[in-house]
Amino acid sequence: MATAIVALLLILLLQKSQSSDILGDHRGSSVPDSDVDLLEFPLNLEFLEAEFFLFGALGYGLDKVAPNLTKGGPSPIGARKANLDALTRDVILQFGWQEVGHLRAIQNTVRGFPRPLLDLSPQSFAKVIDLAFGKKLSPPFDPYANSLNFLLASYLVPYVGLTGYVGTNPKLQGATSKRLVAGLLGVESGQDAVIRALLYEHALTKVEPYGITVAEFTNRISELRNQLGRAGLKDEGLVVPPVRGAEGRVSGNVLAGDRFSLAFARTPEEILRIVYGNGNERVAGGFYPKGANGRIARSHL
User: Fold this and answer.
1) CA 229 to CA 79: how far, in whole Å?
2) Do the Cβ atoms of 223 and 235 come closer than 8 Å?
3) CATH class of this structure's domain 33-299
4) Entry pTM
5) Can you give the pLDDT at residue 29?
6) Consecutive sets of 10 residues in the chain, 301 residues long: mean pLDDT of each?
7) What was the pLDDT predicted at 22?
8) What is the dihedral of CA 241, 246, 248, 252, to 10 degrees?
9) Are 73 and 115 in contact (CB under 8 A)?
10) How high is the pLDDT of residue 232?
11) How far apart are the first and last CA of the chain?
12) What local confidence, expressed as pLDDT, does residue 209 receive?
């Protein structure tokens, strides 16, 4: 009888362990206090990406597909379904569900915080594009108008997040924290690579009705992020002078990287300056009209 009970307990423990691995639930793991804020901060960008991609592909977001992950935070402003072709919608939908997974993984590891108020309206994106070109485009840029516009708007998002993960990784102390960030970085980098590759195929295509090439759009957006970040060159468009290409030999730049083709790193402060759209981590704005959430972001407001 005792042997049977022991065997049953071992089976139950094994099942629990396997379930935890499948679900990616690391809440039982030890996360050093110094890692918690660093792991929570990326939720701000993961919320933005999840809502933008889900709405773009489906016309609705977290409030419908995973309301528990929002932790009661306000619904995004102005997000809507985009006019996407079948391939682009397929890719963006995959990204959307991937972001849901990212939110789960982070919230399974640390407590997290409510979804911040996000402004994903066409006007919000138009302001960024106008700022990048130093003038108002007419008509205003609409990210939801077609597939090319949506991909250009998507160019704004995962890359900023991946540079944040690159910057965070060396600061982490715990093995669980490093494993989580490595996993997040891998997929965020993949998303950015897919977006850049799809855009690179049309690098010389002119974005209607502006008569400006896709490559020029990406170059202007990257230049703007460098300016707002106030930390030097950490962003590159799809076509660069050969001296800035891989090994100084190519102008095509389907993946951005430093002189060793390694990913650039950004601090939370640099990221806030960019996503607030004003170069100041202490002044909320841009995609976060009331500011980002979490101790790091709130400490600057």
Assistant:
1) 25
2) yes
3) mainly alpha
4) 0.90
5) 55
6) 48 43 46 96 98 98 98 98 98 98 98 98 98 98 98 94 96 97 97 98 97 98 97 96 95 95 97 97 98 97 93
7) 32
8) -30
9) yes
10) 96
11) 63
12) 97
Q: Which two tokens stand for residue 291?
A: 């500011």
Structure tokens at 44: 């701000």
> Cα(130)–Cα(142) distance, rounded to whole angstroms?
11
In the chain, the amino acid numbered 205 is: T
Phi-psi region of 72 (alpha: psi -120 to 50; beta: other; left: phi over 0): left
